[in-house]
Amino acid sequence: MTFATADSGTSKTQTLTGHLEPGAADFVYLPVEIPAGVNKISVSYSYSRPGVPAGLLSNSCDIGVFDEKGVELQGKGFRGWSGGFRTEFFISASDATPGYLPGPVSKGTWNVILGPYQVSEHGLDYTVNVTLDFGPDGAPYQKKFPPQEISGRGAGWYRGDGHLHTVYSDGKRTPEEVAAGARAARMDFMISTDHNTPASHAVWGPLAGNDLLILTGEEVTTRNGHYLALGLKPGEWIDWRYRARDNGFEEAADLIHESGGIVVPAHPYCPYVACRWKFGYEQADAVEVWTGPWTVDDESSVNTWDSMLADSARKKDRWLPAMGNSDAHSAPQVIGLPHNVVNAAALSHDAILEGIRNGRSWIAESADVTVDFTVKSGGQVAGIGERLRVADDAPVTVTAAVAGVPNGVVRFITDEGQTQQITLPASGQGTSTWVTTPRLAAYIRVEVRHPKADGTSGSGTEMGPNLPLGPMAALTNPIFLGK
User: Fold this and answer.
1) Is residue 225 exposed (0-12), middle (13-18) or buried (19+ Cβ within 10 Å)?
2) How far is residue 248's CA from residue 414's CA, in Å, rounded to a whole number?
3) CA-based nearest residue to 83, from 200, 176, 222
4) 3 state DSSP class of 54
5) How far apart are CA 239 and CA 197, in angstroms?
6) Which whole number is the average pLDDT over 455-477?
7) What does 434-472 look like in DSSP terms, one character per residue?
8) Taking the CB of residue 8, how many other CB atoms lie within 10 A of it?
9) What are phi and psi of 254, to 5 degrees?
10) pLDDT in the model for residue 220
11) Average pLDDT of the chain?
C-alpha cells in the first residue's frame, strides 16, 4: 500500500486482499508506505474460515505491526501484536489499542504482519484495511512502570503468580482486575506475561503498592512452544519469530539474561498447535511443571522434570527448578492457582528471581496450603533447593509438615521414585518423617495430593488403567543429599 500526503484533519483508507496456500510462511509482511503528516494508523482484518472435517486444521491467523525501523529479528521496529484476539487496532502518539505501543506514526515503510499459524486445505483468503489520519500529534503517552522493590520487606517466603494475562494480549481481565485478583489470592508478587508484547508494562505503576510487587515479563509464543521471559526490564520486548530449527531462541535467552530476567518454558506438554516445548532446556533457568488446575499434561511435565533431576544428580551438573503458575486469562480461571512460594532475601526483582533460579521455592494451589520441608543430619540442616553435605552413609532425617489439605496424601520422592506415602487427617494438618542416607537418595522432594475422585488416597506405586493419584495440592523443589 502506498499513501499520498493529505490535508490535516482528513483520513485515507486502502484495502489489500490476498490468498495463502497450506505451507505458507510463518509470517507474511504487508508493506505500507506512510507519508509525512500522519498522526494515527488504524488497521482491521478478516480471513476466510471454511468448514473442515473433524481432525483437520481450520484457518487461524494472527496480526501485528512493525514501524519504519524495520522487521529484523529482535530489531527496533516492533509496535504491537494482538495475535488472533482482535480484528482491529490503532496507534497514535498519545494512545494505542492494548497490545500496541503508542508513539509517533513516522514516515517510512511500515509492515502489517500476518501470522497464519493454521491454514486449511482450502487455503486462507485475507482482507486488510489500513486507514491513515492526518494532522498534528497529540500529547505523548505517559509510561508508568512499576517499582522493582518494596522497601522494608526483608528475607522471607513470598508467594507469587508468575504467568498472568490481561486485555493487552488474549486475556479478558484488565490490569486493574488482575492486580485485584492477585491481592485477593494473597500474593506478595505477580509477574505480567502478556503474549509477545510489552505494551502492558507501562500501566502497572499505579497498581503496585507496598502490599504487591509487580514485575514485568512476556510469554514468548513461538511455533515450537511457549516460554516465560520473567523479570524483563520494563518496556523490553522479546521476539518470537523463530522455530527450534533456527537460532532465535538461544539469542533471545541471552538477551533475557542480559536484562536480568530468567527463561522458563511454559506448560511444556500443552497439546495445542505450536504449544508443546521443542527447544530443550539448556538455556532455561526453571520450568513450569504445573499450569492452572491440575491435568494430565502436568503429570507428564512433573515426570519429565523428575527424570531431569536424576540426570543432573548423575552428572553432578546444574539442576532445573520447577515453577507453577495459573496462566489465568479470564474468569473462571483463578489467579494464584497455582503459585510459587519463594524464599527470597527481599521482596524485590533481583531477590525473587534469584530465589526461583536457585530452586528455593515450592508450589501451592492456594495461600491456604503450607509446607515446611527440611532434612537434618547431626548438626546440619538443609531446606528446599539446598544440599545437605554429609557422608554417603550418614543417617538423614527427612521432615515435612503440611497444613491446608484435608485428607491429603503426602509423598516423599527420590531418584528411585516414591519411598513414603501418608494420608493426612480431615483437618489437613500433619507431619511426616523418614530416615535415609545420601547413598540411598540423591535428592528428596515432596508432593501433596488431594484424594482421588472416589475419595481414596490412591497410590503412586501401582499400575493400572486409571490415574493412580489425585490432583496436586503442593509440590516442592528437591533437597539434594551428599557431598
Assistant:
1) buried
2) 36
3) 222
4) coil
5) 9
6) 89
7) EEE-TTT-SEEEEEEEPPPTTS----TT--SSS-SS--E
8) 10
9) -60, -45
10) 98
11) 97
Alpha-carbon distances, residue 105 vs 10, 143, 192 (angstroms)? 15, 18, 27
- Give a three-class secondary structure readout of the chain: CECCCCCCCCEEEEEEEEEECCCCCCCEEEEEEECCCEEEEEEEEEECCCCCCCCCCCCEEEEEEECCCCCCCCCCCEEEEEECCCCEEEEECCCECCCECCCCCCCEEEEEEEEEEECCCCCEEEEEEEEEEECCCCCCCCCCCCCCECCCCCCEEEEEEEEECCCCCCCCCCHHHHHHHHHHCCCCEEEECCECCCHHHHHCHHHCECCEEEEEEEEEEECCEEEEEECCCCCCCCCCCCCCCCCHHHHHHHHHHHCCCEEEECCCCCCCCCCCCCCCCCCCCCEEEEECCCCHHHHHHHHHHHHHHHHHHHHCCCCCCEEEECCECCCCCCCCCCEEEEEECCCEHHHHHHHHHCCCEEEECCCCCEEEEEEEECCEEEECCCEECCCCCCCEEEEEEEECCCCCEEEEEECCEEEEEEECCCCCCEEEEEEECCCCCCEEEEEEECCCCCCCCCCCCCCCCCCCCCCEEEEECCEEECC
Task: Tell me how far apart the 2 most distant CA atoms of the chain are, in Å.
Answer: 85
Alpha carbon distance 93, 128 (integer Å): 22
- Rounded mean pLDDT, 220-240: 98
What pLDDT, in 10s, does the model give residues 91-130? 999 999 999 999 999 999 999 999 999 999 999 999 999 9
Task: Inform me whether the pLDDT recorded for 467 exceeds 90.
Answer: no
CA distance 442 to 446: 14
Q: In this model, does residue 472 exceed pLDDT 90?
A: yes
Specify the amino acid at residue 349. Answer: H
Least confident of 223-232, 319-328, 466-475: 466-475
Query: Which ranges constitute the DSSP H helices of 79-209?
Result: 175-184
Angle value at C-alpha 451, between 448 and 452, nearest 5 degrees: 125
What cell was used for 182? 492477585
Q: Give the DSSP letter of residue 83.
A: E
Cell 530468567: give the residue. Answer: 262
Per-residue DSSP letter, 257: H
Query: pTM above the 0.90 mark?
Result: yes
Q: Which three cell numbers stand for residue 387?
A: 544440599
Place of cell 489500513: 130
DSSP 150-171: -TT--SEEEEEEEEE--TTTT-
